[in-house]
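Homework help board

Subject: predicted structure for assignment chain

Our instructor gave us this sequence and asked us to write out the predicted structure in token form, then describe one feature. I got the tokens but I'm not sure how to describe them. Can anyone check?
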Amino acid sequence: MGDPHGVGIVGLGFISRAYLETLVGHPAVRIVAVADLDPTRAVAAAAAIAGAEAVSVQGLLHHPEVTTVLNLTIPAAHAEISGAAIEAGRNVYGEKPLTATFPQGRSIVDRAASAGVRVGCAPDTVLGTGTQTARAAIEGGLIGRPMAASAVMVTPGHERWHPEPDFYYAPGGGPLLDMGPYYISALVHLLGPVRAVIGAASRLRDVRIIGSGPRQGQQIPVEVPTHVTGVLEHADGALTTLTTSFDGVATMAAPIEVHGEDGTLAVPDPNHFEGTVRRRALGDPEWRPLEPQAGYVAAARGIGLIDLVRADDTRPPRAGGELALHVLDIMTALLRSAEEGRRIELTTTTERPAPVPLTPAEEWRSARQLRESAPPDRPPRAPARDRSHDPSAVR
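My token output:
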């Protein structure tokens, strides 16, 4: 696909900072253009990136040096921007979810296939050492045949810290579409695709109150379920129970647990690239940590785009469109199941992405990034963990 690979970024909110930390100066890519609904934000971003131009969205989509569009807009705009990029003959890599609705996602993947361009989508956190080490442990037989899993995400809601939280409670938002992609993508890596779902959902409040920023105290309407739970039937027979909530306070449950005939794995938060995988074998009274066995070491937001750029005909992108579409199918089917009160069989499946071998930071990060992240005469330190859903982060 070329090296360096020309990238244009649409949407320069908070999440763009994490991508830029990884992509600017990386030998595999070059940021050639940026665009935002707020032109002053685009100008400021371009000024900080050597060789980048601040342009309109249409100017970016048709920029002669842009080969891939990085779509960092809000979920409601994902389909429009990604579709326009495909129409312009560009590859597209976007933030999760792929689109706000399944028909939109199906259209994006089909149109890209017809146009001969690639689609990639976050999350790429599952390519780090946390999820990938757990996958290696399962595939290595450390817990025997996996039979079941649980995945739990509980928070009181993003309006407590986000100054513009409206989109979290509008169609395309909610805890499942917002945070579910991390957990479900990890589950597909660990246990394979899903064939059917059963869901239930509720909404604790019809309005939320903004807790910070210039709109503090303002009420916003809640248009989507804010507590979603369900069962995923994996194609190989394993069952996962999933809970995503903006209505709880906290949880002590492991983000993901995978149960096998011979042991259980506690898997770290899939919203983070790293974390300790713990195993408790049958008959062992203690949980024992596993050393990292797989994944991009010291990974950071944007590794999925780099992985896409470096993919070829023998190895598709690991954070690719087919996986993102299957994840979207799972989530929207869960919501439909909750509304209709029935088990729903999915219309999609996907190949499990290729596992990521243990890849040292110096093999995927730029020399500049390694120098800047390492104190003098000391080895490179890992970058700060992904904070796109921390209280200090604003997308």
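Reply (TA_rk): Your tokens look well-formed. For the description, you could write something like this. Confidence is low (pLDDT under 50) at residues 378-395. That's the kind of observation they're looking for.
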